[in-house]
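TICKET: design request
STATUS: open
ATTACHED STRUCTURE:
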């Protein structure tokens, strides 16, 4: 499952970069392209994070941090939108979610290619 997760996340990151490059000359439209990519990547990472937490995978504690921060950001965006009636500042809409997305991507990437602490000799025995 972790290989599928990293593969899909990588494809979504590449998709977001490609969309950004293709729409960069459109003036203000690049903003919505980035938000569109977030709509695809965000739920995927939230579900993957929740699954890892429930299954207590190797880095589940780091994913608890990701899950909590993601819900705090979503709550702040909701409160700002409801109280002002306007869209929040682009930095809050783009920079913070992409920082969280990159944080989660690094966690998942380290699960897939990270060095094993345990040796390969008699792996079923714990010394």
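STATUS: resolved
RESOLUTION: sequence designed for all positions
ATTACHED SEQUENCE:
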């Amino acid at each position: 499952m972790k290989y599928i997760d990293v593969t899909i996340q990588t494809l979504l990151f590449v998709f977001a970069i490609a969309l950004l490059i293709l729409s960069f000359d459109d003036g203000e439209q690049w903003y919505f392209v980035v938000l569109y990519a977030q709509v695809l990547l965000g739920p995927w990472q939230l579900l993957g994070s929740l699954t890892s937490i429930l299954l207590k995978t190797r880095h589940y504690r780091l994913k608890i941090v990701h899950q909590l921060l993601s819900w705090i950001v979503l709550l702040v965006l909701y409160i700002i939108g409801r109280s002002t009636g306007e869209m929040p500042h682009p930095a809050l809409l783009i920079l913070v979610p992409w920082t969280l997305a990159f944080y989660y991507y690094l966690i998942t990437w380290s699960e897939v290619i990270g060095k094993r602490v345990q040796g390969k000799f008699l792996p079923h025995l714990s010394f």
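CLOSING REMARK: The chain is about 75% helix and 0% strand. The radius of gyration is 18 Å.
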